[in-house]
Amino acid sequence: CCVNILILCLTIHTKLMRLCHTTSCFKSSGQVIVTFDGDELYHADFKKEEIVWESRVPTSFHFVHAYQYAVYLCLCKLPELIVHSRNDVIEQIENTLICFINHFFPPVIKTKWTKNGIEVETEDSFQAFILNPDGTFHLFSTLSFIAKDGDIYGCTVEHEALTEPKTEFFEVHSNQTDNHSFVYCGICLTVGFLGIAVGTFFAVKGNKYQTS
């Protein structure tokens, strides 16, 4: 289990009441406590592997899979990484790399960027952890760069669920070469169309000359 304490609260605005999950997971033991407006509904005891319901909570309100849900909350979740550019990559044009780090728990993570194997500084002064519907978290890390064909950037994360740092790479492939190809093809097509037009013009003139 992860060494972590997490409190998630949902405010019911109509009556200004709060439903809270307090999760504390440790390597040898842990608890998940659910409270409603400050009063405990139940807690999960991982030593005894059971749910302990507050006596005032009617049996009809007991959640059948409450213990399985508590176990799920205490599992470390491995982060998933995706790196992409904000805009199309063009040689010598400033762009931004985005590292999307998703589905990790607990919300404690360290990120860094490298360029061709050398660590580079980022402008990420604050990382906002965003809660997913399944109880895991995601965040975005960004890096500004000037595109140069062949450069390799890496987004590396360190997380408690990982036995070693995890890295996702992004290799710069500039579209500039492709743009030159498009220009060359455009010129060839233009010359071809002009040739057809000139040939058609002289063919028409030749027919008129023969007729006359």
From TrEMBL:
One of its GO terms (biological process) is adaptive immune response. Keywords: Adaptive immunity, Disulfide bond, Glycoprotein, Immunity, Immunoglobulin domain, Membrane, MHC II, Signal, Transmembrane, Transmembrane helix. One of its GO terms (cellular component) is MHC class II protein complex. SUPFAM superfamilies: Immunoglobulin, MHC antigen-recognition domain. This is Ig-like domain-containing protein. Residues 1-22 form the signal peptide. It comes from Sphaeramia orbicularis. The keyword Membrane applies. Its main location: membrane. It is a single-pass type I membrane protein. The gene is LOC115423693.
